[in-house]
Amino acid sequence: MNRASNVPSSATTDRSEETMSTGTGSGADLSVAAKRIQRELVEITMDPPCNCSAGPKGDNLFEWVATILGPPDTPYAGGVFFLDITFPREYPFKAPQVVFRTRIYHCNINSQGQICLDTLKDNWSPALTISKVLLSICSLLTDANPHDPLVGSIAKEYLTNRRKHDETAREWTRRYAR
């Protein structure tokens, strides 16, 4: 434990305290990606985004699990949604892969958990962090984008019968996210 910050030693960038694997199987110096991910781990541990948490699944710094609490005043309120995050070796120059592991009824998230979010695709920038990505996903839960859907039938229902859409989304949240 780093006493100055109350952050686990494995989350610091002090080389003498490195304990997390970079997934390469070697003890070589940390890559640019690993250094950036470690820095983001410290930041998200000390100042997590509202209703979100994230960190490594085990000792592999490149594989994380995240938790998002369903935003209030949405059909997802009261739900706890789990996501897997995989950082590529080219991070932050290439976007992380983020997928929902909890089933969710949403036009921008398909049955495999893939997310239609421009910042994870064409609009990715190295200036973005995983905290900002999680906030963007929370925003998507608050305001879906039915004009760029992954699931056309849910988008159509969202646009033409919002009450039915929200009832179904609430039911899925009760069934799968509690």
TrEMBL record:
This protein is called what?
E2 ubiquitin-conjugating enzyme
* Classification lineage: Eukaryota, Rhodophyta, Bangiophyceae, Cyanidiales, Cyanidiaceae
Which PROSITE patterns does the entry mention? UBC_1, UBC_2
Domain UBC core, which positions?
Answer: 32-178
Residue numbers spanned by region Disordered: 1-28
Which InterPro entries does this one have? Answer: UBC, UBQ-conjugating_AS, UBQ-conjugating_enzyme/RWD
Instruction: Look up keyword ATP-binding and say if it applies.
Output: yes
Which terms are listed as keywords in the entry? ATP-binding, Nucleotide-binding, Transferase, Ubl conjugation pathway
Membership in a protein family: Belongs to the ubiquitin-conjugating enzyme family.
Compositionally biased region (Polar residues) = 1-23
Q: Which molecular-function annotations from GO does this UniProt entry contain?
A: ATP binding; ubiquitin conjugating enzyme activity
Q: Which residues form the active site?
A: C116 (glycyl thioester intermediate)
In short, the EC number is: 2.3.2.23
Q: Which domain of life is it from?
A: Eukaryota
Q: Name one Pfam family in it.
A: UQ_con
